[in-house]
Structure formats: structure tokens, C-alpha cells
Design goal:
- About 35% of the residues lie in helices and about 20% in strands.
- The protein is globular.
- The relative contact order is 0.14.
- The protein is an alpha/beta fold.
């Protein structure tokens, strides 16, 4: 059946001015747009075989845009935490509340009192840099607040956390974290043990509810595709990620898997699920840590005296990147500090020497938060894909002031130069890093338009381009444009995202979301969602 979507302002994203008033769609693909689409249909549809072979959908004069692509998030973690955790902090006009360990203790005590004694207590949204004490709680404090129960408190950046004695004992990390606080390689190298404990605490009902809520949130924001960076290399077999892969092939939103493995056996178990081989992201593919945990790799120490370090030698990174590129994989790696960014660019240069025909758009730098001026020049010349999350810097400048507390002014001024990279045609891809941040794409777009460094801000069109056109280019798929031959996935809203003020993005939601030509219908938050997925036809991720 053909479907004519009409009475809307379809912003095709081919350029800022390109707009049309109709889309003709068949089998999830755009056949024609504008007058051509209407001419193919005709006023009375008499040339079609039957009246039922055409459906018309009136979109009520709304603005319509290609469905968004979140280029970097951790879907399995987000699903596991939805409805199963306590978010500890919130933002107010005055900053973060609570901002003391005493206030955190009250939240955890209340959470423990309302939970079953056998529950694993998961606490997210803790912001160590916003606490008056400037640290995570230790295991002795958690033991007291939670009555000796299992509890896991995650720092906002997910690069450090703290555990109670009972949880440390369960996962065998007592010697690794005597005070219960995990950070740097000790955290990132053992995260699989902790997420394994989380997975064991989630039953079918909770899993179904988590999947439904995640997919429903995506559709509510107009997101049609997510790049899911999944997998932990620090456990013998990653059965949870293998289950996720099976489910992701049946979800109503498009999932594009980036397995975070360097282990060949683990990679082989998920490779066949992907139409395009991809590898990397975070976890095992993290070249350094984060700002909030004082573990990003900088040449100069943090203001508190801590010195972040690289997780791999230069030779190890070059060897792994070149190996995976030669095997045909798109390679992605986490690099935040200047030393990690330089290390990854060196590896890309080495891969380019081995294969001069290599299209570096297929190689990704995830975050690229604090590149040196020399690294910026190299990125502009090499033009790999870059995933960015400027919403975090937007929040930090207004509420957390964490960069000011941790970084000297030289590093603050060295943040990823969005304008410079956009002008050099670098493939900037918008993303949320959920569950580190909300999946809200409009927060990230606001961060791009009101960037920490104002002279590096983007326009409304350019911000949307990072979530549409560039995501399709990075994936090498016909996504992110509303033109013939492209995927018929789009959303409608009441705002002109090119001309509206940045403040209008606050709380913005899609009116309607269409994926592959069909309107998204919310999934039920129950185990029935699992049954529905099990009966769905699988597709490549």
C-alpha cells in the first residue's frame, strides 16, 4: 500500500531552505515528495488498482523532520535502570539538590525503607563534583544508610561508583576497592561484574517494562535509530548482551550495535546480527576516563592534583585499531582527554597508511571533549566521525560548575570546537550517552546552540543536522533525509527547529513519530512486551 503524508512542512534537511508539503511512501521508503508525490497519486486515485491501495494521512500543518539518530548511548544499561533505580539528585535554580552527603543519606534511607530487604538498591544521578564533600560515599557510610544491604551508587558519568560491603562481597571486589569506591581502570575494568549483579535482579516483568519505556521515550522525542554501545569484556561470557542482541533485532526502533569487545570469541557471537560490522565505543574501548571522576588523560593534572592516565600503550591501540579495520569493522573508541585523543588519531593515521583508500567517516572518535589545537587540525584534515554530547557542558556551566573546579582555564577553553569542526565538514553526530544523561536530544541541541564557548555554537539547522543527516552518513545508510529512496521515518512537532529560540527546546516532544512509514504505537510496560518482541520478525542491527 502507498501512503501519502500531506498538510505538513516537511524539512528535508538537504539544506536549510529545502521544504516540501507531501511525502509518498511505500514499504517504508520515500517514493516521491511535493508535487511529484501528489501527481503520482492523482486527485481521485483512479489510476490505482483499488481505492484501498492508497492511504492519506493529514498531519495538521505541523513541522516534520527526519527521525533522529542518537549516535552514542548504552541501551542495555538504560533499560536495566528504568524503574529499578533511585535518581539521587535534581537541578534547581540554585544548583544541585541534595549537595551534601547528609542529604544523600536521607534519600538512600528512604529508598531502603520502601524496598524489599533482598532487593539490590541501585542509585543513579549522584554527582560527586557537586557535593560539598567532593566525593562518593564509602562502603561504611553505605552500610549504615542501607542497613547492611546491597547498594550500588553510580556517579553521573558512570566512570566511578561506590558499593556497600554486601555488594562488594557478592561480586568479589573487596580487595580491589577496600573503601568501596571504584574509579579509573578499577571501575571500568570491573563494570561487567556489577552490571551482572544488576541483571540478576531484573525479572521478565521489569525487563519488558524497561524495554517498553525506553522505546516509548525514543518515540516521544522523535528518535528512530539508536547506536547502542554494548558489552563487557571483563566477564567470561557476556550472556546478557547476547540476550540484548536477540531482543534488539525485534524492537520497533532501529538499533545499530557497537559491541564493546576486544575479545574475538565474544565478537564472533554477535557479529552475524549486524548488517555492517562495527566494534568499539566505551568499556574495553575506553582510552581514558572522565572529567567527573578525575580520570581523563590530560598532559597537566586536574586542579586537585590528580593525574589521569591512558588505559593502553600507543602500540596496543594502533594494533587493535588496524586489526579491526583490516577485518572490515567500523571502529569507535572513547577519548576525552587530549592525550587519549592524540593516541586515537595516531592509530587512525596508522590504519590509513595500511589502507590509503580507507574512508575515515567509518572511524569514530567518541566524545572528543578536550582536543589540543593540533588535534583539532588533524581531525579537520582526516575527518573521522565524531560523537558529541554538549548537553553535559550546558548543564555543567549553569548548575554544576565542575569544569571550573577541576580544570584550568586553558583546558576549559579547549573544549570540542563545534563550529570549527562543522565548518570543516567533519561528520559531527549528536548523542546523549544515556543513561549518563537523559536521552533528550533537544537538551543536546540546546547545548550546541548555547555552547559553553559561545563562539563555537551552532545554528538550529546545524544542530538538527548532527542528529539526522550526519547520523546517516556515519552509518552509511539512507537515513536522516526526507528525499526519494530514503527511509520514511520522521516526526512532527509544533516548532520550527531552525528558527525557534533555544529556550523553546526545553521540554520539547514530538507530536507524532512515524518509523518506516508507520506511526509508532506505545508499548505496554509489562512482560507482554517481551512476548510481542518474541513474535516479531528479526532484522539486522
Amino acid at each position: 500500500m502507498k501512503t501519502l503524508f500531506h498538510n505538513a512542512q516537511f524539512h528535508t534537511m538537504e539544506d536549510e531552505a529545502s521544504c516540501t508539503d507531501a511525502l509518498l511512501v511505500e514499504d517504508g521508503i520515500i517514493l516521491a515528495v511535493g508535487q511529484e508525490a501528489k501527481d503520482l497519486v492523482g486527485d481521485d486515485s483512479s489510476h490505482l488498482r483499488s481505492a484501498e491501495s492508497l492511504r492519506k494521512v493529514d498531519l495538521g500543518g505541523a513541522h516534520a523532520y527526519p527521525a533522529l539518530i542518537d549516535a552514542h548511548l548504552h541501551m542495555l544499561d538504560a533499560i536495566g535502570l528504568i524503574g529499578n533505580s533511585l535518581h539521587l539528585t535534581s537541578f534547581t535554580q540554585d544548583g544541585v539538590e541534595p549537595h551534601t552527603l547528609e542529604g544523600i543519606a536521607e534519600e538512600i534511607q528512604r529508598f531502603a525503607a520502601e524496598s524489599s530487604p533482598d532487593d539490590l538498591l541501585i542509585c543513579t544521578g549522584y554527582i560527586a563534583m557537586a557535593m560539598d564533600e567532593g566525593r562518593l560515599p564509602n562502603r561504611f557510610e553505605l552500610d549504615q544508610w542501607a542497613g547492611g544491604r546491597r547498594i550500588w551508587v553510580m556517579n553521573m558519568d558512570l566512570h566511578s561508583s561506590s558499593c556497600s560491603t554486601a555488594l562488594l562481597t557478592q561480586v568479589g571486589l573487596e580487595d580491589v576497592a577496600p573503601d568501596g569506591i571504584l574509579e579509573g581502570p578499577n571501575h571500568d575494568g570491573n563494570i561487567g561484574l556489577l552490571t551482572g549483579a544488576l541483571a540478576d535482579s531484573i525479572g521478565p516483568r521489569q525487563l519488558g517494562a524497561g524495554i517498553a519505556e525506553f522505546c516509548n521515550q525514543c518515540a516521544a522525542y522523535g528518535i528512530g535509530t539508536v547506536c547502542a554501545l554494548e558489552g563487557k569484556d571483563d566477564i567470561p561470557r557476556d550472556s546478557l548482551t547476547e540476550l540484548f542482541v536477540w531482543l534488539a533485532q525485534r524492537m520497533p526502533i532501529d538499533v545499530r550495535l557497537f559491541p564493546q569487545y576486544m575479545d574475538d570469541a565474544k565478537l564472533a557471537r554477535v557479529k552475524d546480527a549486524m548488517a555492517t560490522p562495527r566494534v568499539g565505543g566505551c568499556m574495553k574501548w575506553e582510552l581514558d576516563g572522565s572529567i567527573g571522576s578525575n580520570t581523563a588523560a590530560f598532559a597537566r593534572p586536574f586542579l586537585g592534583g590528580q593525574q589521569g592516565s591512558l588505559y593502553f600503550t600507543d602500540q596496543e591501540v594502533v594494533q587493535e585499531v588496524c586489526k579491526r579495520e583490516a577485518q572490515g569493522y567500523m571502529v569507535s573508541a572513547h577519548a576525552i582527554g587530549e592525550l587519549a585523543i592524540d593516541q586515537l588519531l595516531d592509530a587512525f593515521d596508522a590504519a590509513l597508511e595500511e589502507d590509503p583508500s580507507l574512508d575515515l567517516t567509518r572511524m569514530r572518535i567518541d566524545h572528543l571533549e578536550f582536543p589540543s589545537p593540533q588535534a583539532v587540525e588533524r581531525v579537520c584534515r582526516m575527518r573521522p566521525s565524531v560523537t558529541v554530547q554538549p548537553g553535559y557542558a550546558w548543564v555543567d556551566k549553569r548548575f554544576l560548575h565542575g569544569y571550573e573546579r577541576r580544570l584550568d582555564q586553558g583546558y576549559i577553553n579547549q573544549q570540542v570546537p563545534l563550529r570549527t569542526l562543522m565548518d570543516a565538514d567533519v561528520c559531527l553526530c549528536g548523542s546523549s550517552d544515556a543513561p549518563v544523561q537523559s536521552i533528550d536530544p533537544f537538551l543536546q541541541m540546546r547545548g550546541m546552540r548555547e555552547f559553553y564557548l559561545p563562539e563555537q555554537s551552532l545554528t538550529g539547522y546545524e544542530a538538527l543536522k548532527t542528529y539526522t543527516v550526519n547520523g546517516g552518513l556515519m552509518l552509511g545508510e539512507a537515513k536522516g533525509l526526507l528525499k526519494p529512496g530514503y527511509e520514511a521515518s520522521f516526526f512532527t512537532c509544533g516548532e520550527d527547529l531552525f528558527t525557534c529560540e533555544p529556550v523553546a527546546l526545553d521540554g520539547l516532544r514530538a507530536k507524532r513519530t512515524f518509523l518506516h512509514g508507520r506511526e509508532y504505537r506505545p508499548l505496554p510496560r509489562s512482560a507482554s512486551t517481551l512476548a510481542k518482541l518474541a513474535l516479531s520478525r528479526p532484522h539486522k542491527i
